[in-house]
Design goal:
It is a single chain. The chain contains nine helices and two strands, in the order ααββααααααα. With 229 residues, it is mainly alpha-helical. It has one domain: Arp2/3 complex 21 kDa subunit ARPC3. A hairpin with an 8-residue loop joins strand 1 and strand 2. The longest helix is centred in the middle third of the chain and has 28 residues.
């Protein structure tokens, strides 16, 4: 914290306070599920956090963890969904990194995932209560959009404050540029949620789809970088 600009410190404090409220809500709303089921979700989240991809000219790396987070949004109770969402954030912070992250970097990443997943869960289920006739894909895309905006906004916000650059400039040139990749992964998570289960053979067909999507997005981002003035 000592090396951060004052505005960045204020953002970290606000995120920590919001995450603390989420953690309190998790404790007071904990509903037990089968230990084997919860352990499987944790394992899946860990493996997804280990699969990291990078795009040309984009400093941040992306893991498949958000796909598990979005699937958990639709398939798990609130508390378990939030806990599962923090697992890929921790794994991604330490797995195959060129530079060991600081404690504040890991905490901010984990807190950001907790806040984003909590808002995502309430957006999905709140919309279901308000409009029961709305189909699952519409509710799922709304929840996925909430997660993307909050999570990417927090990351771009702290990077902008540290680098003293405009938040919108960083957000446009990192997260917004690869939004189609995020959208493809969200669609895969929606397919899993629609089936009502996760794991086994159903996860296998998603891998080549994501691989092709990632390859096409790399070509697209590289082309944009070359054509940029």
């Amino acid at each position: 914290m000592n090396g951060l600009p004052q505005p960045a410190k204020r953002l970290v404090i606000c995120v920590t306070a919001a995450a603390s409220l989420v953690f309190v809500s998790v404790l007071f709303n904990w509903h037990s599920i089968q230990p084997v089921t919860f352990a499987f979700w944790e394992l899946l989240a860990t493996l997804a956090g280990m699969v990291k991809v990078r795009f040309p000219g984009v400093t941040s790396s992306y893991s498949f963890g958000y796909i598990v987070v979005l699937a958990a949004m639709a398939m798990l109770p609130f508390s378990q969904a939030v806990v599962v969402s923090m697992t890929p954030a921790i794994v991604q912070s330490y797995w195959l990194t060129s530079k060991r992250p600081t404690g504040i970097q890991v905490a901010f990443n984990v807190f950001g995932y907790a806040i984003s997943s909590a808002a995502c869960w309430y957006a999905f289920h709140g919309l279901q209560r308000m409009t029961p006739d709305l189909n699952l894909p519409a509710r799922f895309m709304f929840g996925a959009a909430v997660f993307f905006v909050i999570n990417s906004g927090l990351v771009a916000g702290i990077l902008g404050l540290v680098a003293r650059r405009a938040w919108l400039d960083i957000w446009e040139n990192t997260h917004l540029m690869v939004f189609p990749y995020y959208l493809g992964g969200a669609a895969c998570a929606a397919c899993v949620a629609a089936q009502g289960r996760v794991g086994g053979w159903w996860c296998i067909p998603l891998l080549p789809v994501l691989a092709i999507l990632y390859a096409s997005m790399r070509v697209w981002v590289r082309k944009l970088r070359v054509e940029a003035p």
